[in-house]
Write a structure and sequence with these properties.
This protein has 9 helices and 9 strands. The protein is α+β, with helices and mostly antiparallel strands. The protein starts with a helix and ends with a helix. The chain has a 3-stranded antiparallel β-sheet with strand order 1-2-3. A two-stranded antiparallel sheet has the order 4-5. It has a two-stranded antiparallel sheet with strand order 6-7.
Length: 251
């Protein structure tokens, strides 16, 4: 059944090529496998012309890219799910300027943890790439820490094995960010080092978990909002937001 879903997803993605942004006009979209991976890697690397400072560059970027589509005075918090339960650590939104290190602030979540990079991502280069940096509640971000992503259901939290499930709403976002980081930075940001799953026969660095999440949680309007803004800021885009079927073409 899973293979059938992937095939349907790929087919629909191919039909939707006409809607892929002009950014990809010089990319051969008929390629597959490693050839397409290499072409997309070249594209998002050569167009990544602005490298953000961690402070204030990333802060300023997230205050543009991650605004709540229904309230421009707030940002959406990765892993959040409830603004009404009286528990600030589960908040889904927060004031755009309530950023910092306080208990009820939002901070910059490295969806690909710095310490899991090879070498450590630090706070420049891949460590300051806003395509994988998202606002998160300070305490919830701390709970995630450097835990690897693993499958689960419902809201975000620590799994029974001690890993991290990002939540039903966010797992597709996470998958597409992990794919971006791998295609953009190669061996520095391997999917197998940040998630728990079975390796793909065609690429031992990719795991089925992220392909599964990419299908189960389709691209959201919020992700579509981020991509062109980040293109304006950094120069490059996340291909897997523009066409998530690239994932099944490659892997």
């Amino acid at each position: 059944m899973k293979n059938r879903l992937l095939f349907v997803f790929l087919f629909l993605g191919i039909l939707g090529y006409g809607q892929v942004p002009s950014y990809y006009n010089d990319v051969n979209l008929n390629l597959s496998g490693e050839l397409l991976l290499d072409e997309l890697s070249d594209k998002i690397t050569t167009t990544h012309t602005t490298f953000l400072s961690y402070t204030p560059g990333v802060w300023d970027a997230l205050k543009q890219t991650d605004l709540d589509p229904t309230d421009s005075g707030k940002v959406l918090l990765l892993y959040g799910f409830d603004d009404t339960d009286g528990d600030s650590t589960t908040d889904r939104t927060r004031g755009v300027n309530n950023n910092g290190g306080g208990a009820t602030d939002w901070n910059r979540e490295h969806t690909y943890p710095k310490s899991l990079g090879n070498p450590n991502l630090g706070t420049s280069g891949p460590g300051a790439d806003a395509h994988h940096l998202r606002p998160a509640d300070v305490q919830r971000n701390s709970s995630r820490g450097s835990r690897k992503f693993a499958d689960g259901s419902g809201n975000s939290g620590v799994t029974s094995q001690g890993h991290w499930y990002p939540g039903d709403e966010w797992k597709g976002d996470v998958a597409r960010m992990m794919m971006y980081m791998y295609v953009r930075y190669g061996s520095v940001c391997l999917p197998v080092n940040v998630g728990v799953g079975n390796t793909i026969s065609s690429d031992v660095n990719m795991i089925d978990l992220f392909l599964q999440w990419n299908v189960e949680d389709p691209v959201s309007d919020f992700e579509l909002q981020r991509n062109p803004i980040l293109e304006g800021i950094q120069g490059n885009r996340n291909p897997f937001i523009d066409n998530p079927a690239f994932a099944t073409q490659i892997w």
